[in-house]
Amino acid sequence: MGANTEEFLRKHIRDIPDFPKPGILFRDLTPLLSHGPALRESVCALAEPFRDDGIDYVLGTEARGFIFGAPVAIELGVGFVPIRKPGKLPYETHQVSYELEYGTDQVEMHVDALDDSHRVLIVDDLIATGGTAQATVEIARRAGAEVVACAFVIELSALAGRDRLDVERVHTVLRY
């Protein structure tokens, strides 16, 4: 990804001050999602570093990880595994709880979605503190899969979320 791609994509990220609470600067991806060429470019930028890595599945965490993860899976020619909030999957699941700023949350994945022969790429829209991403790494490993890398459209560098991830490779398209 070149400087022109980064500049192009940044034009489609809207800054919303004081959302969802005072003092937070929210990076809104909605304009990028509604602009076909920007959406396509972001998906290609997420997928590009992993084309030759033998990825078997892309994992996307609810909900915006679905938006980016499924097209990255298509781009790589592999399957997509949804990582859901509790109670959304109809079959037996693996579950991982993780800490939030105010409490805990949980993610789930079908027990038969992955096994120890699978190499996976985790994709989400944004990494902030890294809690959700690390829970997704943990749930993939609980199934026996090898986590090759995590990839995000946006990284909020000041929150050091990548430091929480127990993976060798973390790829981000845009850093703020």
Under CATH at level 1, the class stands as: Alpha Beta
Read across the widest sheet, the strand sequence of neighbours is: 4-3-7-8-9
Structurally, how many domains make up the residues?
Answer: 1
Distance between the termini: 16 Å
Strand content: 25-35%
How confident is the prediction overall: mean pLDDT? 96
Per DSSP E runs of 2 or more residues, the count of β-strands stands at 9
SS element count, helices = 5
Low-confidence stretches: none
Radius of gyration, taken over Cα atoms and rounded to an integer in Å: 16 Å
Which characteristics define this entry?
single chain; 176 residues; Rossmann fold; globular
SSE diagram, text form:
Blueprint: H1 3-10, E1 14-17, E2 25-28, H2 30-34, H3 36-47, E3 57-61, H4 64-76, E4 79-83, E5 93-100, E6 103-110, E7 119-127, H5 131-142, E8 146-155, E9 169-175
Parallel strand pairs: 3-4, 3-7, 7-8, 8-9
Antiparallel strand pairs: 1-2, 5-6
Helix pairs in contact: 3-4
Describe this structure in words.
The chain is of the alpha/beta class and 176 residues long. The protein has a single domain (51-175), classed as 3-Layer(aba) Sandwich (Rossmann fold), CATH 3.40.50.2020. It is 28% helix and 34% strand. It is built from five helices and nine strands. Strands 4-3-7-8-9 form a five-stranded parallel beta sheet, with helices on both faces. The protein is globular, with a radius of gyration of 16 Å. The chain starts with a helix and ends with a strand.
Summarize the structure.
The chain is α/β, with parallel strands linked by helices and 176 residues long. Helix content is 28%, strand content 34%.
